[in-house]
Amino acid sequence: MDYSSFIYLKEELSLIAVIVILLLYDIFGSKKSLTYFQPVACLLLVGHILLTCCPAPAVLAIFGDTPAVDQASAGVYPLFSGMYNLYPLGSIVKSILAVGTLLVLLQARGWLESENTVIRRGEFYVITLFTLLGMYFMIAAGNFLLFYIGLELASIPMATLIAFDKFRHKSAEAGAKYILTAVFASGLSLYGISLVYGTTGTLYFADIPAGVTGSPLQIMAFIFFFVGLAFKLSLVPFHQWTPDVYEGAPTPVTAYLSVISKGAAAFVLMAILCKVFGNLIEQWQAILFWVTIATITLANLFALRQQNLKRFFAYSSISQAGYIMLGVISGSALGVTSLIYYVLVYMFSNLAAFGVISIIERRSGKVTIDDYNGLYSTNPRLSVVMMIALFSLAGIPPFAGFFSKFFVFAAAVAEEYYWLVFIALLNTVISLYYYLRVVKAMFINKNETAIAGFRSDAYTRLSLVICCAGILLLGILSVVYGSIHHYSLGW
Amino acid sequence: MEKLHLEYYLVVSIIMFFAGIYGFITRRNLLAILISIELILNSVDINFALFNRFLFPGQLEGFFFTLFAIGVSACETAVAIAIIINIYRNIRNIQVKNLEQLKD
Fold this sequence. Notes:
Helix content of chain A: over 70%
Number of domains of chain A: 1
Largest sheet of chain A: 2 strands, antiparallel
Order of helices and strands of chain A: HHHEEHHHHHHHHHHHHHHHHHH
Oligomer: heterodimer
Strand content of chain B: under 5%
Shape of chain B: elongated
CATH class of chain B: Mainly Alpha
Structural class of chain B: mainly alpha
Number of helices of chain A: 21
Largest interface: A-B, 42 and 41 residues
Strand order of the largest sheet of chain A: 1-2
Number of strands of chain A: 2
CATH architecture of chain B: Orthogonal Bundle
Distance between the termini of chain B: 60 Å
Radius of gyration of chain A: 22 Å
Largest sheet of chain B: none
Number of helices of chain B: 3
């Protein structure tokens, strides 16, 4: 065995190092030193992000190693006989997810410093980073075994995060709903994988396509597998758990769940559909066509009648997942570029919105839309951040959300899905209505008892500034989209 | 005595799988739901071991997947039971009909 291959796992190994350091710090740190836990955790994560952003060949050059490039697909380094794949696009997605996690950690401070959770503060960081590690393995997997372990590493600790407020019944209820649906979904996925193994005789992504002939058993296997991942992505009709879990979970965890875990699942779904089930492209495009229409339309209609903002954003995130599926259905390099770009923009927009919801819930305990009446008169800056985030989610031109929607539509149109894009466009209009309802509440509705003005803590402010900068700049800086596109050409 | 064929085992695993799905949908107790899920996961384990043993006897991939799947499903059960115990502490009950604080 060649141990030098471990150098290629720089993303996973550095994240594991961060986790171990934080775990030891949490166990052995004195009470006084633990007050610096959050800055230390964030700084370590920043170091990890810098290492992840650094392209693989540059890191390898330091060790004087020449990577064994697979001639067939340039830029993909299969390691451990194909179990693990190192490829630039994967590293880009991993760094996007890590940045999102950093923003969530910054926003979580207010909640973690409260009386009931302060003693378990360290656990939150460690568990969150473990789920991130699971997503890394999912993205890098070249074998269904590693994929499955990554999937479970990403979803089992997530249930403990959702049930983190153990004295609050809603949190435990949401945790139970999440873990039962997540395990059920992974059971369905596994059954599909077992049938794939039975018909092809291998679990390696590289070898499976040769054995996929489109027999009825394989189509059934694919459908089981797809349903399992659709549960994770909360596509209609597998979305019923989403609003309940989003409402019950602590708000920073909701933000994490709606952005990071959804983004990772979307990218992995596309990777597996294209690479493993490429021979079944007609079948999965037909399935995705109807699932996408149902997801966008039903989620939008349900979002119209929500009062609780966390439920509202749950339905909004389901419909956003539908838009992401427009990138998946094209199955092209353009599709994967637009998907990653969409996830990036969606991450900044949604985290900005959740940052505002989180800090307001912390300070006033209010989460319904009516409570936000007249927010602009008392908290003008938070209102503006929320407005920018909502405009970006709705896709109004100067903000990045418009460009990300434009690119997924363009990817779907390039594959001649005119009806699908037309329905998605109609739905954008509906979504504009409910997003603007919140903006109207904040800016136009008058309220005598508006939420009192307050000054949020430095960490939350920093995260909101980063999010706003992302929303404002990502659409204008074409270099971002361009560089993702550059790496996706070898897809 | 005639040797048992692949199909006999497959029938068992398919019955377990769909019994699990049926139980997941119809049971009204969190622990019973959890047991139904375990049925699903165990049927998958049978499938893997079986395909490996009968169709691809030269390799070990299926057996290894079974081992990992058993380990992971144990973790899942542990976490699920911990959460269920927490619910029991909060409301002294684990019936699904009492989990109604979160709804539309």
